[in-house]
């Protein structure tokens, strides 16, 4: 049932302005309904049926109606199509057959098609409405224009309505604008400005018709009515994932000129599906009838959505779409449209309540079934040893079924391959998706290892390996898997430290090697205990912290600004004091050492991450800098052979007191270094990295295959 249109017409029939205008609008009168785009897909599928049902409910309420279908086609061309559409309307089960026959006959008599192309066409429409009002001898209640046309036509139509179709004083004018409202933010802003020159804000209704579906409209009431039971489980600790799915079996033949401009994302995903997402995740309004509060709560969700990168979306296009575009848009055979007919997006909300909960939005044409639903799938910790059909083993879920088809599976993880697929049931397992952390991808994707990457070997031959390097533990893998393992190990250390003492002290080095790790921690480790973590610097260049060369600047940009860590838990090195950089008399190194001794129990960091330079330096401890002479000092000023020369660094005394020290080495450029290090004895003055030997902790080398094998 197209509830949005029904409720809209009820509201518009009685809604007015203030004072005298409102009193006039509430009097019975004549309502003229004009659907521009009257033979289009939306009008055919929903609008005429919705307006007919509303007419059935309102015909005895004192108002009279006339219905105009408008379009660009001439009357001789469009009238047969138009009457085929309106004759297909039907009554609800609550209406008796006899009454249905009577009101349907009346409705058909009140509906007519008019070409609405030029200003003169709109002027003729206005004259016809005035003529009907004179014949009926009753006042006009108002005029409703429903623009079921592409957004690029809105401004021109609004201008014609303003110049020729405004009702007399006392009657209302309402113009309904369908989604999509523009094709991007700038075009939406421009369109709003253009419309504002023709229509008052209170005369415009920007709507998403999907919100009129009964099930969609009842999501918030359902959450409110069941608040007592849902509140304890409506969070990241209990929700495994949220799925919002709209699958269609139809193609887009006949709609190509419109559809090819927008595609599935603009057509249904950034409006229908994201609106449903907000209804499922927004803070419940104190006052359900307050549209302003509901709107603000929705906007809060949108403002907290994490940015969606290229790894959080997949798109596809059914095979026959290319041919349809060429035929309907008179394109040559070599024309290729990149408009997606399928999309799957993985979203996350940056709120504590939903931290780490994946929200999957899926929609497409030419799929195996027509179905729409939203599913909240809850975590199931029950293991059934024998009776796998027990109710305890079945998925714990809440499903809002929007209509069409039947739900067959406890989870939907299907998509369309971007190499195109046949469509329908023939898609088979080509549509399977894999969700991992914050990434979504096709599960059927193939990893190809080139000849320069271990010829004759397959990817599965090179999984994460745990061996020894220089008598210490070593983890090796391809770079992506290596970073994943390192991030997981850091989180495990953090969780263990927080369980043990309520705090985790992490010291991070600069350079380029840790950047992939920072991204991994920021984008995939939602449950990392940042609130109880103190982040320290292993070393810093003697430059202002606002400059790009600053290690802290890099750490902040790539990690700290993306996680919820308390401000006072961040400890940059004080390289700039008294408006000077790394001056010995300012005692910046001593200040940092005192801070470490004060806050870090026994000056023993829980985890220290180091890199290794091509010359064997680690932290900012460089060859031939007599690092062994620093004694028990925890922090010192050092000299680098490259600019900027001055540095501040943790010393071996601080590093080797840590519980865990990780040395991260990545890239083919480090292969020769790794080869040399594997053969040499300890010589910290020449090869400072060989001086990393935790007193009572452990040392782990993380080396990717490029560095290890060349």
From TrEMBL:
Pfam families: G6PD_C, G6PD_N, Glucosamine_iso. Keywords: Carbohydrate metabolism, Glucose metabolism, NADP, Oxidoreductase, Signal. One of its GO terms (molecular function) is glucose-6-phosphate dehydrogenase activity. CDD domains: 6PGL (cd01400). GO terms for biological process: glucose metabolic process; pentose-phosphate shunt, oxidative branch. Transmembrane segments: none annotated. Residues 34-218 form the Glucose-6-phosphate dehydrogenase NAD-binding domain. GO terms for cellular component: endoplasmic reticulum. Residues 1-19 form the signal peptide. Residues 222-402 form the Glucose-6-phosphate dehydrogenase C-terminal domain. Pathway: Carbohydrate degradation; pentose phosphate pathway. This is Hexose-6-phosphate dehydrogenase (glucose 1-dehydrogenase). It comes from Champsocephalus esox.
């Amino acid at each position: 049932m197209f509830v949005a249109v029904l409720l809209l017409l009820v509201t518009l029939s009685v809604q007015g302005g203030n004072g005298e205008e409102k009193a006039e609008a509430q009097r019975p009168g004549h309502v003229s309904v004009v659907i521009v785009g009257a033979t289009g897909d939306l009008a055919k599928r929903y609008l005429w049926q919705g307006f007919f049902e509303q007419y059935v409910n309102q015909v005895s309420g004192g108002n009279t109606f006339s219905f105009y279908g408008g379009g660009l086609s001439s009357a001789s061309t469009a009238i047969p199509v138009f009457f085929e559409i309106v004759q297909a309307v039907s009554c609800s089960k609550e209406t008796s057959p006899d009454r249905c026959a009577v009101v349907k006959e009346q409705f058909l008599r009140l509906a007519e098609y008019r070409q609405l192309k030029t200003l003169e066409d709109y002027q003729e429409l206005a004259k016809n409405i005035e003529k009907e009002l004179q014949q009926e001898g009753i006042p006009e209640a108002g005029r409703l224009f429903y623009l079921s046309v592409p957004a690029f036509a809105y401004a021109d139509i609004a201008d014609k309505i303003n110049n020729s179709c405004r009702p007399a004083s006392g009657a209302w004018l309402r113009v309904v604008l369908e989604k999509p409202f523009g094709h991007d933010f700038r075009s939406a802003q421009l369109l709003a400005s253009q419309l504002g020159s023709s229509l008052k804000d209170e005369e415009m209704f920007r709507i998403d018709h999907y919100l009129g579906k009964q099930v969609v409209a009842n999501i918030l009431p359902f959450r409110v009515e069941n608040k007592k039971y849902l509140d304890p489980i409506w969070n990241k600790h209990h929700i495994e994932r949220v799925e919002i799915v709209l699958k269609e079996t139809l193609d887009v033949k006949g709609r190509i000129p419109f559809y090819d401009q927008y595609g599935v994302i603009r057509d249904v995903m950034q409006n229908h599906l994201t609106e449903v997402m907000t209804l499922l995740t927004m803070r419940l309004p104190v006052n359900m009838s307050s549209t302003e509060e509901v709107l603000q709560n929705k906007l809060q969700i949108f403002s907290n959505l994490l940015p969606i990168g290229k790894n959080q979306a997949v798109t596809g296009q059914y095979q026959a779409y290319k041919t349809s575009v060429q035929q309907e848009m008179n394109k040559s055979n070599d024309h290729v449209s990149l408009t997606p007919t399928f999309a799957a997006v993985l979203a996350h909300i940056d709120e504590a309540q939903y931290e780490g909960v994946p929200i999957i939005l899926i929609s497409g044409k030419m799929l195996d079934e027509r179905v729409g639903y939203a599913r909240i799938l809850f975590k199931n910790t029950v293991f059934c040893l024998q009776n796998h059909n027990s109710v305890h083993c079945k998925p714990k879920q809440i499903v809002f079924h929007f209509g069409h088809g039947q739900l067959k599976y406890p989870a939907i993880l299907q998509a369309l391959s971007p190499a195109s697929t046949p469509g329908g049931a023939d898609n088979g397992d080509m549509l399977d998706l894999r969700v991992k952390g914050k990434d979504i991808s096709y599960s059927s994707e193939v990893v190809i290892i080139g000849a320069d990457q271990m010829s004759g070997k397959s990817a599965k031959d090179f999984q994460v390996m745990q061996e020894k390097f220089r008598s210490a533990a070593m983890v090796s893998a391809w770079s992506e898997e290596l970073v994943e393992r390192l991030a997981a190990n850091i989180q495990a250390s953090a969780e263990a430290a927080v369980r043990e003492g309520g705090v985790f002290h992490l010291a991070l080095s600069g350079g380029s090697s840790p950047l992939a790790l920072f991204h991994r921690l920021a984008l995939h480790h939602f449950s990392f205990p940042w609130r109880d973590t103190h982040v320290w610097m292993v070393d810093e260049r003697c430059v202002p912290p606002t400059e790009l060369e600053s290690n802290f600047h890099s750490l902040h940009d790539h990690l700290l600004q993306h996680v919820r860590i308390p401000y006072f838990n961040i400890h940059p090195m004080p390289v700039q004091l008294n408006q000077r950089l790394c001056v010995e008399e300012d005692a910046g190194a001593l200040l940092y050492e005192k801070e470490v001794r004060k806050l870090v129990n026994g000056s023993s960091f829980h985890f220290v991450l180091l890199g290794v330079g091509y010359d064997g330096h680690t932290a900012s401890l460089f060859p031939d800098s007599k690092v062994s002479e620093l004694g028990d000092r925890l922090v010192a000023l050092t000299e680098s052979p490259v600019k900027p020369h001055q540095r501040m660094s943790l010393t071996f005394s601080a590093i080797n007191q840590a519980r865990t020290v990780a040395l991260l080495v990545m890239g083919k450029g480090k292969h020769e270094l790794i080869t040399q290090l594997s053969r040499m004895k300890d010589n910290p003055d020449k090869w400072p990295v060989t001086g990393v030997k935790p007193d009572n902790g452990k040392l782990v080398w993380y080396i990717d295959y490029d560095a290890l094998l060349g």
